[in-house]
Structures are given as C-alpha cells and as structure tokens.
Amino acid sequence: MTTTASPTSPFVSRAPKLGLVGGFDGIRGIGVMMVLVGHALFEYVESWVTIVDTFFVLSGFLITTLLLQEHRSTGDIGMRKFYARRAIRLLPTVWLFCAVWIVIGIVGTVFDVEGISLRGILEDALAAVTYVYDLVFPNGLYMIQPDTQDDRYMWHLWTLSVEEFFYFLIPGTVLICVRRNWVRQLAWVFGALFVAIAVARWFAFTGFWQNTEGVLPGIRLAFLQRPDALMLGSLLAIGNAHLTEERIERLRRPFLVVGTIGLIVWFAMLNLSSGAVEKLGGPYFPYLPEGPEQFTRPQMLAETPVYWFRFGHTLGALGFAAILLCLVHRREWWLSRCWSWGPFQWMGRLSYTLYVWHALPYIIIIALTGGVEISLAGQLIRTPVLIAAAFAVSMPVYYLVELRVLRAKLRFSAEKETLDLRTGKFVDTASGRPVDEAEPTDS
After folding, report:
1. Spatial separation of the C-alpha atoms in residues 227 and 162, rounded to whole Å
2. What are phi and psi of 397, to 5 degrees?
3. Alpha-carbon distance 333 to 290, whole Å?
4. How far apart are the C-alpha atoms of 223 and 200, rounded to whole Å?
5. 428 - beta bridge partners?
6. In sequence order, which ranges of 151-216 are alpha helices (DSSP H)?
7. Distances (CA, A) of 362 to 118, 149, 161, 376
8. Among 80, 186, 196, 392, who pairs with 177 as Cys (CB 3.0-4.6 Å)?
9. What is the mean pLDDT of the chain?
C-alpha cells in the first residue's frame, strides 16, 4: 500500500528501485566513441555535441534518483559519503592527466619545443583541478576569444566542471527539499529554468552580459555549457519518483511511443549540424558563429538558416529524456537490448577514462600530421590512428588507476548492496562479495 506524504512530512519516493539499466552503460560507451570520432572529424559531425546534453541528462537523472532512493532506504542522505564517492571517482584520473601535461610542458620548455606552452598548460591544469574550467575557458570560447582558445590543452574538461558544480549543489538541495516536502516545488524550479534557458538560446542569448568584454567568458557563454540538461535530468528523476509500479504498468505503451518519438528527435539533432549531411545534400544548420565578428545578437538572429545552438541543445536533451524513461521502464525495447550489448557496456565503464585522456594523443598527433587544415582524406586516414592512440593511452590508466579507485569507492556506499563499476555486477558493500539480487546504490 502506498502512502502519500503530508505537507509537513518528508517526501518519500514511490518508484521501484532503479536496478541495473544496461542501456545506461551502453549509451556511455556509444557516446564516448562519438566523442572520439567527433574530435577527429569535428567539421563533419559538429552536432554530435548533443552527446554532452545526453550525458548531462543521464547524470542529473541518476544522481537525483539515487539520492531519493538513499533517503527512502536509510532515512537520510549521507553528504560526506556522497562527496567522498564523487571525489574518489573523479579526481585521481584528472589529477594524473594534469600532472602528465605539466611534465610535457616542462620538457617542452626546456627543449624549446614549438607549440608547447608551460604557462598555457599550468593555466589549464589549475582551472581543471579547481573545477572552474567552464568559467574561464568555456565551450564556445573561440567565438569571443579565439587567441585564448588556440592555447588550450584540456579544452574538453569544461564538461567535468559543469557536472562538479551540479554535484556540489544537488545533494544539499535534494535533502532540504525532501525533508520539507518541497520536491514538487523543486521540480517546478528546474522546469522553469529549463524553459527559460531554452527560450533565451532561441533568441540568441548565449549567457549573461554576453557583449560585455570584462565579464568572465563562462558567464557570457553560460547557456552553451548546458546546465539546463542537468536540470532536466533531475526533473525527470523527480517525476519518476512519483511513479508506482501500478502506474508504470499502465504507462508501458505510452513509454514506448514517447521513447520512439524521442529517439527520432534525438537522432535528428545529432545530424542537423553535420558537414557530412550537408555534403550529401541534407539539411544543415551552422552550430555557432565562427568568430567575434558574427557574435552579436542581431547578426545571430539574422542568420539563415538559424544557428543550430538556438534549438539543438534543447531538443536533443528532450529527445534523450524520452529515451531514458523508456530505457528504465521498457527494458525489452529493441533499443534497450541494443544499447545493453556487452561491448557497449564495457566501453561505457571505460568511458570516463577515455574521455579525460583522449585529448593528450589527439593534440600531439593532430599537430604532427598537418593540424586541422588537412584534406578530408587525410582526416579519415588519421581518425582510426587517433582512436587507437586514445585507447592505448587510456587502458593502462583504467587498469592501473581507475579499477583501484573504483574498489576504494565501494567503501563509501550508503546502502547494503552496491553496483561495482569494475564488473557491472552488484556486491555486498561490507564484504565486497557478489550478491544474487542486484540493487544499485551509486552511479
């Protein structure tokens, strides 16, 4: 029997335990491969940047869902354990990555290697380890400060900074809202902010004070960092927390319909700013202005066709949100089965390491093979070399660092049974031994 919380009693999630969703690891694996291809052939698959919106929606959903489940199971949210899990999971790989770059910077400076700037590397490393990369070197920086963008070595780490800011705020926010039964109000706030950012982008606002040069770049380009995708994921988690097993059973067919529509929208957004599609005669929308001259709002609004960023991030996030619900509640769906394929899940478990480390060989190999200006044929030949190099660099880090980190992370689980990210199986938190029935406790 399900009870409804009074206005003065804490909110209690009604949803079944999330369980192991194989499609989540699968889309991480597919997504990181899209990142590897996208950073090798960016001009031809530019709108694959939608995969960042996808990761953010998934992250917002998982973290919020697991916090709500933890409160239901234990009566509280262990803030120290939450931050310990996040720190153990995220910090070692990034710190090692920055340390290796600093060594490269020192060696390059000593031997006067062209293209290696120790100062630039130190600036990137400091921004990365303090998680302010999205404020000082944000996505889209090339539009307003192209010279600064040209000196970046860790350009991809802006995404980790956005997520870390979210991780800093969300546990306390959820805990307060659960205790005071303000969860629905929190959902309204997230929904209103998501709509507000979507509308702002549609009218070519990239952030706050976007034409004021003295303002931090990350403020001027705030809406291109996609905090709304994280909010959408949390909003989805709150909605899911109101779904009882009986209601889920009644919604089985609507979930499938909505998920299929979401897949169509998501796939379309992935390809509407694709140079490859344009060359084949398909629809094409430029992603962003190419530089400061085109950055003013009147010029962006006058562009025909419209810039992809004005609608693509919003619709891509909404499309994946619909897919996500179907992955959770219709696991027999053909896409769920496809994304749950073993190799996809394996790449998903490797995805964080690959994402962080792939930039190292990419920068070096691209610089040694003619830069980004070489012909399409040259880029196509270079792409498998880049991907192979990314795996070659990442695999030792994964097996020698990440797996040890993941083992240590198990000790900070808030529940009795924990998903072991090394194997994709569930273990008893106290003993570390596999359990027969899987219940997840961490993302």
Report:
1. 7
2. -65, -40
3. 41
4. 8
5. 417
6. 158-179, 183-202
7. 18, 16, 21, 17
8. 186
9. 90
What is the C-alpha radius of gyration for the chain, rounded to an integer number of angstroms? 22
Q: What angle (nearest 5°) sits at the alpha carbon of residue 14, between those of residues 195 and 192?
A: 10
Residue 318's contacts (CB-CB under 8 Å, 6 or more residues apart) are: 232, 262, 265
CB-CB contact of 237 with 65 (8 Å): yes
Among the listed residues 387, 432, 386, the one whose alpha carbon sits nearest the alpha carbon of residue 409: 432
Neighbours of 325 (CB within 10 A): 23
In sequence order, the 6+-apart residues with CB closer than 8 A to the CB of 149 are 137, 141, 142, 155
315's tokens: 């619709």
CA distance 235 to 232: 5
Q: What is the pTM of this model?
A: 0.92
Closest by CA position to 426, among listed 17, 46, 148: 17
Closest CA to 258 of 143, 335, 197: 335
Determine the 3-state secondary structure of 108 from DSSP: helix
**Model pLDDT, residue 417:** 60
d(CA 67, CA 415): 11
Main-chain phi, psi angles of 226, to 5 degrees: 60, 45
Could you report the per-residue pLDDT of 242-295, keeping only the tens digit for each?
Answer: 999 999 999 999 999 999 999 999 999 999 999 999 999 999 999 999 899 999
Q: What angle, 0 to 180 degrees and rounded to 10, lies between the N-to-C axes of helices 79-110 and 359-368? A: 20
Return d(Cα 209, Cα 206) in angstroms, integer: 9
The burial class, CB within 10 Å (0-12 / 13-18 / 19+), for 102 is: middle
Residue 153 is classified by DSSP as S
